[in-house]
Amino acid sequence: MRLPLGLRLSLTAFTGVVLLVIYAPLMLVLLNSFNTDRTFGWPPPGYTTKWWKAAWHSEGARDALATSLQVAVFATAVALVLGTLAAMALRRTRFFGRNVVSLLIILPIALPGIVTGLAFKNGFKTILGIELSIWTIVIAHATFCIVTVFNNVQARFARLGGNLEQASMDLGAGPFTTFRLVTLPMLRSALLAGALLSFGLSFDEIVVTTFTASSQDKTLPIWIFDNLFRPNQAPIVNCVAAALVLFSAVPIYLAQRLSGSNAEGLTGAR
To answer: Is this prediction's pTM over 0.90?
Structure first.
C-alpha cells in the first residue's frame, strides 16, 4: 500500500522527532565522555581521552563489570533451560488453566521492577532466611529473562508446526533423539536471540538488583548510580555509561538481526 505524500512526510518527520528525543541524551553522554571540563560545560571547551583511560584503570568499575557479566551469563543460562522447557510443555499439552500458566510465566517482565525486587528481598531474607549474594541476583534476574526465551521459542513453534517432529517419530526416533536432531536445530536461532535479549536485560538491570544484591556485590549499573554524584568520579562514570550503552546495543542488535533473518528465511521457504 502506497501512502499519500503528505502522510509519508508527516510520518517521517514524527519518526525523526521521536528518535531525536530518544537518542539525543545518549549522544550527549557519549560526547561528554570526551569533554575536558569536569563539570561538563556546554559546549565542550575541548576533547580528551584521559577519562577513558582513567575508567579503564578504575578497579571499582572493572570489578562491577565482572559481577555484571557473571550475573548476566548465569541468569541467561537459567532462562534458556527453564524458558525452553516451559514453552515445550505448554505446546505439547492441553489442560485446564493452560492460559493462566502462560500468563504467569510472562507476568514478571510486565511487573514494576521495584515490586519484583521487594518481593524477592522479603522472600530471601524474611521467609527463607537466605543472605543476599550474587546468586540471589541471578535468581531474581532469571525470572524476567525467562520471558524472552519463552516468547521466542513459542513464536518459533507457532511458525514451524510439528510435522518434522512427527515424521521423525514415525521413522522410529525416540523423544530425546527427535529433540536432539530435529527440535533443537529448529530452535537454534530462536534460542540464540532469546539468550542475547536475556543477557542485555540482565546486564542493564538496576532496580531489581538494588533489592537483591548484598553490599559487597555491585553490578555495573549500581556502581554508576553510586558514583554519579561524586565530583571526582563524574567523568569516569560518564565514560562507563557511554561504554554500557554501546555494549548493551550489541546483543539487542544481534538478536534483532537473527529474528529478522530467520523470519525471512521461513517466508522464502514457504
So the answer is: no
